[in-house]
Amino acid sequence: MADEGEGRSEAKRPFPRFVADRPHLVEDAETALRLGKHVLLRGPTGSGKTRLAETLAERLELDMESVNCSVDLDMEALLGYRTLGLAEGKTVVEYVEGPVVRAMRLGRMLYIDELNVARPEVLPILHGALDHRRRLTNPLTADVIVAHPNFCVVAAMNEGYAGTSPLNEALLNRFVVFDVPYVQGDALAELIREATPSSTLSDAVVDRFVRLSADLVRASDVGELPPEAASIRALLDACDLCAHMPAMRAVRYAIAGKLSDPREQDLVMEIAASYFGDA
Ligand SMILES: Nc1ncnc2c1ncn2[C@@H]1O[C@H](COP(=O)(O)OP(=O)(O)OP(=O)(O)O)[C@@H](O)[C@H]1O
Ligand SMILES: [Mg+2]
């Protein structure tokens, strides 16, 4: 499944499985889904939420339907739409199922990305599907859709970014919540090796990237850098580039360059210089 936010390098990168530095994250999220709960993954951009949802779908052997709650998400994008078709030479009104209806009917995982940027009036349509009733009345057909036993929802949200709003309590209440912070330490080293197999990064260079990441996370925790400065997506991009150019250039393009404030860019480069010098 493609993530709309992903760039070209990620499309070319062989997808690594989700790697966690918290021992029970994947197993516990899987258990929650097996128990019929819906799961909300909460974490900053590039922390692997979409990858984790894909990993959970693989582990549960479920196909996935996705919706992205960008501002123009409306009822049709969730439930489907009516269109004109031909049947036995006559024009008829046909109903084309949307992802929510398909997931409920066929017992798939529904992945709802960027849950907290949805317009507040749209998601309440899903309340009945997400609680013990596991059903919704489709306003387009007046059918009552009863969810297949395998139907489950994994949603993802970034907290605290522009354009996002606190989640409606009633909606949040229907999920079991898992935090997905940026992976660190040995697990990050493992991920760098897995995600950049074609590169020839030495153990020493991988170790420097792991320590650079720890410093970026710390700087964003104390507010010196925005959370996205420590994005693992950006770090993996830098590791990819680093196999073909000096590390400082790779960090400039893949990490510092994404920040809008020049002072923040300088701070990233200063931290990187402490590990890579002029390399
Ligand atoms: N813990 C992790 N395990 C495996 N891959 C990871 C992990 N963290 C980040 N990645 C990699 O980083 C990239 C971005 O991950 P992903 O798209 O899942 O992030 P996200 O949290 O969904 O970001 P966004 O909030 O911007 O949608 C992918 O290439 C993914 O494989
Ligand atoms: Mg995502």
Automatic annotation (TrEMBL):
SUPFAM superfamilies: P-loop containing nucleoside triphosphate hydrolases. GO terms for molecular function: ATP binding; ATP hydrolysis activity. Residues 35-186 form the AAA+ ATPase domain. InterPro entries: AAA+_ATPase (IPR003593), ATPase_dyneun-rel_AAA (IPR011704), CbbQ/NirQ/NorQ/GpvN (IPR050764), ClpA/B (IPR001270), P-loop_NTPase (IPR027417). Signal peptide: none annotated. PANTHER family: MAGNESIUM-CHELATASE SUBUNIT CHLD, MOXR FAMILY PROTEIN. Belongs to the CbbQ/NirQ/NorQ/GpvN family. This is AAA domain (Dynein-related subfamily). The lineage of its organism: Bacteria, Bacillati, Bacillota, Bacilli, Bacillales.
